[in-house]
Amino acid sequence: MRKPMVAGNWKMNGKSADNAALLEAVRGLGDECANVTVAVCPPFVYVPQARQALEGSGVAVGGQDCSDNDSGAFTGEVAAPMLADVGCEYVILGHSERRTLFGESDTQVAAKYRAAQRAGLKPILCVGETLEEREQDVTEEVVGRQLDAVIDAAGVASLEGAVIAYEPVWAIGTGRTATPEQAQTVHRFIRERVAAHDAGVAEGLVLLYGGSVKPDNAGELFGCDDIDGGLIGGASLKADAFGDICRAAERSRD
Ligand code: 13P
Question: Which residue segment(s) compose the domain that 21 sits in?
Fold first, then answer.
């Protein structure tokens, strides 16, 4: 049985004082939702603050991106070994905001995936189509291509126990959530695509849904067979909402 996961992607939000209050509330979720992997991914500069506030709580910390290089003259970049060094367990890679606003290609995302694994981090690989692509009915083609880039570069074995987040771009920050049926269909597609290479690896994949997940839709989404939890943006900045979403994940395996 796969362990559900709920990860908060804080994006470029937060300051020390607000973070402290939020982290204090999140800390309790480690015990309260012991059957869920709970993680928060703050901006890089606040990783040590999160790590310290969550020490011993069972709540993991992740970065929101990393370089595909391990060190060197890359001004402004943060390397995967640095994230590991300051206590990150996870790193979000290929988020649609990175792909669309910063022009990250499938190949670059795959190189970052390899760098993260070299450093012992667990990547949370994001995939998902734009509204235009959904309307053109090429969702599976796009998600398949994003997934294949990693399989081609790192091999299917690199997906052993991996976390993949399906985040339809049109549902991110828009209040427009994919229906559970729409999300489940793509999650099933991802699992089957990996199963074509290795059924065991496919079965173990933790597949998160992301895009306007809120306390009132989390239960239904997490109840779907191939949805193992969520990658939460806006609602992860509110302690009550994030807590309710984690509790929905805890109940999803009852
Ligand atoms: P929202 O939950 O704000 O829609 O963001 C989703 C997301 O991008 C998580 O990575």
Answer: 5-251
CB 97 within 8 A of CB 11: yes
Q: What is the pLDDT of residues 105-153, one digit of tens each?
A: 999 999 999 999 999 999 999 999 999 999 999 999 999 999 999 999 9
| Threshold 0.90, pTM exceeds | yes
Determine the residue of 213, 214, 217, 245 to mutate for testing ligand 1's pocket, defined as the one with the most ligand atoms within 8 A of the Cβ atom: 213
To test the pocket of ligand 1, the residue of 127, 212, 244 to mutate (highest count of ligand atoms within 8 Å of its CB) is: 212
Compute the distance from residue 73 Cα to the ligand 1 centre, in Å: 32
State the pLDDT at residue 176: 87
Pocket of ligand 1 (CB under 6 A): 9, 95, 167, 172-173, 210-213, 231-235
For residue 63, pLDDT over 80 is answered with yes
Overall domain count for the chain: 1
Atom of ligand 1 at shortest range from CA of 212: 4
pLDDT digits (tens, 9 = 90+) for 187-238: 999 999 999 999 999 999 999 999 999 999 999 999 999 999 999 999 999 9
Active-site amino acid positions: 95, 167
Alpha carbon distances (Å) from 179 to 26, 117, 211:
27, 32, 11
Give the max Cα distance, the chain: 50
Q: What is the DSSP string of 96-131?
A: HHHHHHS---HHHHHHHHHHHHHTT-EEEEEE---H
CATH number, residue 120: 3.20.20.70
**From the CA of 25, how far away is ligand 1's center (Å)?**
20
